[in-house]
Amino acid sequence: MTSLVRIIIALLALAASAAGARADPVADFFHGQTISLVVGSDPGGGYDAYARPVSRHLGRLIPGNPAIAVKYMPGAASLVAANWLYNSASRDGLTIGAPQRQIPFEPLRGNDAVRYDPFKFLWLGSVTAETAVFIVTASAPHRDAADLLKLPLISASLGAGTDSEVESIAMTRLHGAPIKLISGYRGTPEALLALERGEVQGVHGISWSYIKTKKADWLKEGKIRVLLQSGLEPHPDLAGTPRLQSLATTDEDRQVWDLILAPKVMSRPFVLPPDTLAERVAALRKAFEALARDPDFLVDMEKSQLEVSLTTGPQIEALMKRLYAFPAPTIAKMRAAIATGGR
Predict the structure, then answer these.
(1) Per-residue pLDDT at 210
(2) Coil, helix or strand for 171?
(3) What residues have CB less than 8 Å from 342, skipping those under 6 apart?
(4) Per-residue pLDDT tens for 295-313?
(5) Cα–Cα distance, 292 to 313 (Å, whole number)
(6) How much is the pTM?
(7) What angle do CA 106, 172, 206 make, to 5 degrees?
(8) pLDDT tens-digit profile of 238-283?
């Protein structure tokens, strides 16, 4: 075989390889594109804290290596963003939503402002589970969880429909906790500023991961006390801190709390609008699951002291099906416990 023939064969092989690479329609579509990651919360809070590292690393794991730009659509505890994602967002794979964790369960909770079917969303997964905490200032008279059921407390709400407001209202209705909620704060940073200024005595529903990283100095200096933790499972950092379910005195109330708290299993969910092409959904889900094992992403998260615990898209869908199948009387009691003017 002459040198010229060898060169021609090599060039033909190279061309065939390049043609094969170009034959990947998913990579071809995403190459040179920018995905909008729409966060259903204000900048600076816990959802933003997770969205930003996801935006930095997910693109290189997607075929075609698209860029990812974070955008914000706050309002009504992500209900504005969820309704927009379902009804108006592009279905081409170039829009990913990062709504608050309760969004898949708002229809179950009886929210009449919902304009979406959560089972038609295409869930990519969640990068962590969550434990939230009830904190009070050092000057508050509340020393333990039992005091929350006896002593009046002025507490900041993180917004209508958030875990903060929903769980605080349920504490009042199920257990008689004398909590006065102050609304109007736009997310975690504003609520913590109100706590620091003395406008309120406590805040419920802030992520423990946020408190222990962003407010580690408050913990170290004893400026706040952690009275309760809320989640389906106890957090290893919070040994000795009672769980919210411990306030319940009946099996039915404990089941109601399980129903209310279950969304924390998929605490930072990411989702695609309905009708996105199946091959793009599959590629994005594969990339999202790879992200939770990616060394560079994990190093970034460790530097930020953010916890990573993958819940896959199919696992989110299974959780939704399980919760929507709860007995009707339990669902009715849950709805009564958390009902607000928008439900």
Answers:
(1) 86
(2) helix
(3) 76, 111, 112, 113, 160, 161
(4) 999 999 999 888 899 999 9
(5) 13
(6) 0.78
(7) 60
(8) 999 999 999 999 999 999 998 999 888 898 999 999 999 999 999 9
Closest CA to 68 of 282, 288, 274: 288
Domains detected in the chain: 29-129+267-338 (3.40.190.150), 132-263 (3.40.190.10)
Q: Cα–Cα distance between 140 and 156 in angstroms, integer?
A: 14
| DSSP structure string for 101-129 | TTGGGTTTTT-TT--S-TTTSEEEEES--
**Residue 325: predicted pLDDT:** 93
Which class for 236: exposed (0-12), middle (13-18), buried (19 or more C-beta within 10 A)?
Answer: exposed
In whole angstroms, give the CA distance from residue 284 to residue 41: 22
Range list of H helices, the chain = 3-22, 25-30, 46-57, 79-87, 163-175, 188-197, 208-214, 216-220, 251-261, 278-291, 295-303, 313-324, 328-338
